[in-house]
Structure prediction request, 248 residues.
Amino acid sequence: MRRSGYGLCPIGPREQLTSATYAPSVPIRVLLVEDETDIVSPLVRTLEREDYAVDQAVSGRAALAAVTRAGPDVVILDLGLPDLDGLEVCRTLRASGYEGAVLILSGRSAELDRVVGLDAGADDYLAKPFGVAELLARLRAVLRRTSGRAPAAGGRRLEVDRDAHRVQVDGTEVALTGKEFEVLALLADHRGKVVSRAQLMSEVWSEGWYGSTKTLDVTMGRLRQKLELAGPTDRIVTVRGVGFRLEG
Ligand code: CA
Prediction:
């Protein structure tokens, strides 16, 4: 059977990381964003020795791409980067919905910089030069504080496969009725954009369907309930007076 992979997100590195470690649990994924190689190499060795799965980026743009791709649990972010300012990277991450931890590294240790860093959405701030033991302690602290948040980007994502007529969350199938599937698939086709009630009615039910849209609301309610139980990062948002939008 042909599988177009429609609506599937790229598979993250989680599986490779899991098999590469002897620990039974999934390792905590760290993205280290730093352009100075003499800081990077010893830091990576230290983190890996502590069983963190480490990904690296040497510029702000590479960092943003890596977060989208890998969805790290924590980003260790240097402020002095060759392209974007680290604070700008941090603000962009938060604006795009990244909810993992951010630990900023900086040579700028003045108190004002510290406040600006936290305002930009960082969870903690470590001034250079720092000791490895202090970094590890701060890292554990921010992870403890942020572990109750929603999964990081790239976490429990919804996959809608039209060809297989199947919906999965993090590899687990969500059983939907035909109409529920059609509604969700249409929203997924227009992910991030509003789909009007009229469009849902005409495409999922029948053309020239002029009756009450109560059926749509009932279907939407059941669909949301099922998705809520499956717990993806995606959610269906009601846009008052217009329609619905799939976000995440
Ligand atoms: Ca730097």
